Amino acid sequence: MLSKQKNTDSGVRAAGLLGFAVCAVLVALSAAASTAAPSDPRVEKAYRFQQGGWTYVHLEGSPSDIGFQHGYLLAPEIADAFAAIQLFDTRETQRDWEFFRTTAREMLWPHIDPEYQQELQGIADGVKAQGVNLDVYDIVALNAFEEVPDYYVPWLNKKNKSEKPGKSPKLVAPGNCSAFIATGSYTKDHQIVIAHNNWTSYLAGERWVVIFDIVPQHGSRILMDGFPGVITSDDDFGVNGEGILITETTITQFEGWDPNGKPEFMRSRKALQYAKSIDDYVRIIKEGNNGGYANDWLIGDRKTGEIAYLELGLKHTPLWRTKDGYFASSNFARDPKLIRDETSGFDVNDASSSMNARHNRWEELMTQSKGKIDVEMAEQFLSDHFDSFDKVGGSTVKNQPNERSLCGHVDVSPRGVKEWEWGPYNPGGAVQGKATDSRMAAKMSFVARAGHPCGADFLAADFLEKHPEYSWQKPLLRDMKAGPWTTFVAGQKGGE
Ligand SMILES: [Zn+2]
Fold this sequence. Notes:
Layout: H1 9-35, E1 47-51, E2 54-61, H2 63-73, H3 75-93, H4 97-108, H5 114-129, H6 136-143, H7 148-159, E3 178-183, E4 193-201, H8 202-205, E5 210-216, E6 222-226, E7 237-240, E8 244-250, H9 264-274, H10 278-286, E9 295-301, E10 306-311, E11 319-322, E12 325-329, H11 336-342, H12 354-368, H13 375-382, H14 395-398, E13 428-437, H15 438-442, E14 445-450, H16 460-466, E15 486-489
Parallel strand pairs: 2-5
Antiparallel strand pairs: 1-2, 3-4, 3-12, 4-13, 5-6, 6-7, 7-8, 8-9, 9-10, 10-11, 13-14, 14-15
The structure holds zinc ion (ZN).
């Protein structure tokens, strides 16, 4: 999501205003930080530190305390991430921020469980204590940044078509990520290996660098990557204390929304917090399905060695599972019924598309690597630059990253990704990667790399000079420099 290119004057004005707004927020924040009370009892158990380009936060306690700690410790990151999301959401949908707040208040909030209402309110209280002027509906709208602009708004536009003919922007469900999960004879130690890289706009992705270590009052401990101010991982990579490992990739061109459903950001968080088995995970994430941010879910249970693949549509929710095999995922839907009934015509036969080209590359890698897959190899897969469609050109093609490589670099592709409405040279692609296996998951641990998983740096000024059509992002687009592969573990107290 977050990368529709439109060059309207109003968008440029909005960017300028938002740039000003975020400066004002940050000035207020630094003024408040110097006078903040040093020891609020609610944050006693919480802490943060930086490592390898990531911000690690430990949160512990009641829902309200976890939220407060999150808001309090990450207030500068939340103010900054909020500005980026606000810029994108309003520009992409051509609706003002009040629309998103109203949606949060009237449609999403009543369908959020009390536990997570308390946590979201806690985040709003925490940022406020640091002088950031956001309320709970801003925070809820931020949490819904994957599902409202690209699922609810297209559904609403379609519904209202007779009222506003021809005025709605073209919005399509995005495709984010390359991922696999493997077990049994496919892996080196016959246990589970899981890996994921997040594909999104660089504007959002360069901010998607939080490691959350959460010890909730109820349910199990969670270690996951995440986005500032959001209660779920949202690109969805995590492990829990019950031995469940999860990730996902988005279903390209999905269409569907249920206004009476529960927000996806809550269902995905709840599933990771409460699942003790694959069956639990599937049951919880399906309960109250609103169709938002429809994903293919890769789920593993290290206690049994079993893995599963849930294609979570609104009408169709097929589930595959095995104790000996793999599931690869790269934004393609696999169920013919779901493709027919719930996508706007996803073409499984177009081998040149980003999703199918990556699908083919995954199949090659899994077959070639059978019996050898481990975390180190997973890191290489996430960094892979092979273009499985445009093989002509020999070795020069092999190292040419673009929109078809598992490590995506759409900013260098003259084609963009038409299925996501990503124009030529859209500044998006693989923005970070994570991997783990059963052994590491038993210790609540995974490896992660901030920035392109291959280690390449994205330099904003160079890019904007070559592609001024994206200058509306200039106020908030930063360099995205790759960090090292870094091991994180639940309960760790500091970096290095
Ligand atoms: Zn790369």
